Amino acid sequence: MSSSRPDTHDAPVGEVAESTDEASAPRRTSTALGGLLSLLAIGHTAMFMVYMGVGQVLLPVQVEALDPADKVANLGLVSGVAAVFATLFNPLAGLLSDRSRRRNPWILGGGLAALGALALLGAVRSILLVTIGWCLVQAMMNVYQAAITAVVPDRVPMERRGLASAMVGIGMPIGSIIGVTVATVFVPHDVRTGYLVLGAVIVGAAALFTAMVREEKLPVIETVPLGRQLSAFGSAMKADDFRWAFIGRFLMMLGYFAVILYQLYILQDHIDLPEGLSPAGAVAIISPLGSVCMLLSTVVGGVLSDRIGRRKPFIAISCVFTAIGMVIPVLTPTWAGMLVFCVLTGLSFGCFMAVDTALVTLVLPSADDAARDMGVLNVANSGPQIIAPFMASLVVASLGGYTALFVTGAVITILGALAVVPIRGVR
Question: What pLDDT is attached to residue 373?
Fold first, then answer.
């Protein structure tokens, strides 16, 4: 690109011919933005194909094959340790990407490294090596994730951030559906090939994005010392409304992921499946069903909360219905009960995420530090995913199996509903 082009860090996808026709500029900009958002949607879809296809299908199957007797405890260990790596690498990779003032090299490098890590994970034959392999996958995927999520604030105008968020957001339900379906094809006899296929998907998405989205180095900015960053993170939690919003998000995520992580094992050991339906086949049905419900309620919940002008009731009701959904397989441990569980939790969790994100933006401690404070909130997303595997394995082993796990998840999500009550700045 020519260095004389203004705002090169907001340059459109691909090469755009220079023109003095000002009337056509908005149309060119809109077309370029549409291309960028489409590629972002593809990139996020590929990312969630890996996360969900591996996390919900391939990894549990591999862990069970290595040690069937201790599969619950081993999956909790593997998932929990890897979640720590993910939590550490995401901000680290984001910091390195910020300091280099480039995104594409980190997106492509993360994708390529993730393929190598997935190939290694599929080849190992011990729980220790599976733990190391999944940690490496999480680390490399978070290099990719940190860079691609930074593209929106880098290149999308403020007035189009809502559209960008929607395009990025569809990656989770669509990626979950495709990833779980693809992974199930390779169960139980060809798990290694499943890892390679999902690795090829993330490399393809990274290569497509970096080939189509041309970038130049972003302007240099002042580097804030790490000590000042940590102090700023701590100060955000002093605001009462923000702290309660953080607690509510943390509890909802903890209760939800404690159950979802063990979905395959629940279908194996707790649910009476119809004849001819394997646990992996059941996952391939309920995971897409839940994702579709989540996508639907994300849109509907966000729109309705905007129109009514209320947030807290939607969040509280979502937590309550998530808890109700978790009780269903306790009362009816059947395939029909799991389908009801899937629909209720998908609808309620999707609505919660849409409305709670809107609520948080309304209780940020400082408008000048919005990015920092949203980063604090991300701890409420990642932290529960570290704690949930360990907590769930202890509950299953010590408190009465999967029935106790469902009840524990329900109680935690109810506490999440109560956490929004003290928030005063938002109705």
Answer: 61
Do the beta carbons of residue 120 and residue 136 sit within 8 Å? yes
Are 16 and 185 contacting, i.e. CB atoms less than 8 angstroms apart? no
Domain count, the chain: 2
Q: Are residues 185 and 280 in the same domain?
A: no
Helix axes 279-308, 312-331, angle to 10 degrees: 160
Residue 337 structure tokens: 């009960």
The answer to whether residues 42 and 120 belong to one domain is yes
> CA quadruple 314, 317, 323, 325: dihedral positive or negative?
negative
CB 149 within 8 A of CB 20: no
Please tell me whether residues 252 and 391 are part of one structural domain: yes
For residue 154, the enclosing domain spans 36-216
Are 200 and 246 in the same domain? no
Per-residue model confidence (pLDDT) at position 350: 86
Q: How far is CA 329 from CA 80, 92, 341, 354, 402, in A?
A: 25, 40, 7, 26, 9
Asked whether residue 167 falls in the same domain as residue 297, the answer is no
Average pLDDT over residues 355-382: 68
Using DSSP's 3-state secondary structure scheme, residue 334 falls into strand
Omega of the bond leading into 188 within 30 degrees of 0 (cis): yes
CATH number at residue 249: 1.20.1250.20
For residue 158, the model assigns a pLDDT of 65
Check whether residue 91 and residue 142 sit in a common domain: yes
CA distance 285 to 288: 6
Element (H, E) at 35: helix 25-53
